[in-house]
Design brief:
Elements lengths: L2 H8 L5 H57 L2 H14 L4 E5 L5 E6 L10 E9 L21 E10 L1 H51 L13 H77 L3 H32 L7 E4 H18 L3 E4 L5 E4 L1 H17 L5 E9 L2 E8 L33 H12 L3 E6 L3 E9 L23 E5 L3 H14 L2 E5 L2 H11 L5 E5 L1 E2 L3 E2 H12 L5 E5 L4 H10 L3 E3 L4 H20 L1
Helix pairs in contact: 2-3, 2-4, 4-5, 5-6, 5-10, 6-9, 6-13, 7-8, 8-9
Length: 638
Amino acid sequence: MTAPRVWLRRLSPSSIRSRMLMIALLPALLAEFGMVAYFTSQALATAEKALHARATSSVRHLADALPYALVSGDTVLARHLLETEARNNQLAFARITDLHGHTLASAGDVLDANQLADRYRQRARILLPDTVVQDNALFPANPTVASDLLGEVEVGVQLDQIATFKRDTLIHAVLLMLLALALTGALAWRLSNRLAGQLQHVGRVVGLLACDDLSVRTHLPPEGEVGALAAGVNDMAEALQTHRGELERRIREATADLAAKKDMAERANQAKSRFFAAASHDLRQPLHALSLFVAALKARNQQPEAQTLIDNIEASTAAMELLFNALLDISRLDAGTIETHPVHFPLQKMFVELEQQFGALAAEKQLRLRFRPCDVTLYSDPLLIERILVNLIANAIRYTDDGGILVACRQRGNLVRISVIDTGRGIPPDQQESVFQEFVQLHNPARDRSKGLGLGLAIVSRLGRLLGHRVDLLSRPGHGSVFSIDVPSGETRLIQPPTTAHSPGSIPVDALVLLVDDESAILRGMAELFDNWQIDLVTAHSADEAEHWLTSLDRVPDVIVSDYRLPDDIDGIEVIARLRQKFGQDIPAILVTGDTAPDTILRISQAGFPLLHKPLRPAKLRALLTHLIQQARAAAMG
């Protein structure tokens, strides 16, 4: 940076140095200007008065000295007196005129009337003295009769003397003012430099303190206001350093306490997950066997009176399966194994299907279920959107005792807000966040199984986050609730036509299926089921037993169906890998499990095997077996 820029920066109006200089110089400049103006005017006035006085004194002196010369007619004497007076008092001219205005004698430069404008003139009459000679021929002998006026004397002085004096006086005054101003500016500059340096030092210290350097201190003597400011800054730094040390100590203690609580919460959450996973697995095992036996019994029963009993058993197992599937949905969402497949689809078609699905259930509770026509196109995953609406509508029907439910939508810019509005019991404001947590049921203190497990809204919340769609709740106790979800708009021209579903066909008669499970009841139930399907089945409790039976049969299975959890710290993934390695083929395989732990679901998903959860539906198992066998045989023939 160049020197002028440095000076300009130092003298900027916002700098303290410029303000101090202004404060110091402005009053001094005003005072010096006033004093110089006053004393200069006084000096000029005094000089002018002195000039006038000199002219007046000279003309009076000549008026008193010239009567004798005029009476005697001695013009030489009169001229001598004029010259002497002009020389002694620096007169520009002096002259004597008679009664008729004629010049009798003169000294200096006597000019005409037009040239006397630049000179100051003074006149006096020359009178006859009392002791004059009476017989002088020039005057009458009786002075009382004749006039006493002898003539008139006039003197003049140059006005340029005043101008010269004025110029010199002004020059001296300006020089004196500049000298005083320079001295004042130098003193103010030095004081401002000192004060500005001290303040800049304090400012740098404050800046370092602001940058979290609390060890820095000012190094100024404590005298004066700036010293007091520096001492205050040091005291503040000390207090901040002490406070930060205390705060850091508290933060360390709070962090340690938080880490301990977080560890406890994580352990508790892991314990909860392990408990639910274990409970789900252990409960699904007999339920799975029960569903298999019910399916086999239903296929074999020929008595109408027993069919009602079998249907009731099947309905109870189906209800239990729904409850377990809700737990499974939570686990799959927490594990992150559910993938979204957004497409463009019409909302009205989904409304029609939902009305058919829930119309009878609403009518059973004497509720009015209405779907307002909504001719819009959405862009999202239709299966997951339908899952959200299913949970919201089921929840609304479950907790509405009188009135009805309205499902509607409205366009909001690039979004479509789908709302499920009910006239139910409502939710208090302080509990509107907790209803989205699992196992929370505000109006089911007795845990009535018919009212679900309290997982529907938890699934809705997790699906909303998975899809990136906002879920809102507005509710007033006693007036009902409004659950809404914002879904991006789609384009009608991009809607894909529905694909025609093809029948999976039948399983070839020579197909062989291997089932590995450590539960004997499940093996017996599956054997009964496969007998009804007339499909060859080899059952085994372990991989070793499976190898033994397959070796004795000298056959390679078309499909391996294995439980995930098996004895001896081995799982179904390892069993499938071992059998594939033994037979040297990528035998199609299905994993079956009652485990809902997120890490288990994630591991199976990463392995790439089809997964069925217990209790599985026999029709779903048969359809998957048919698909895998036909796909494998088609690949072998191709």
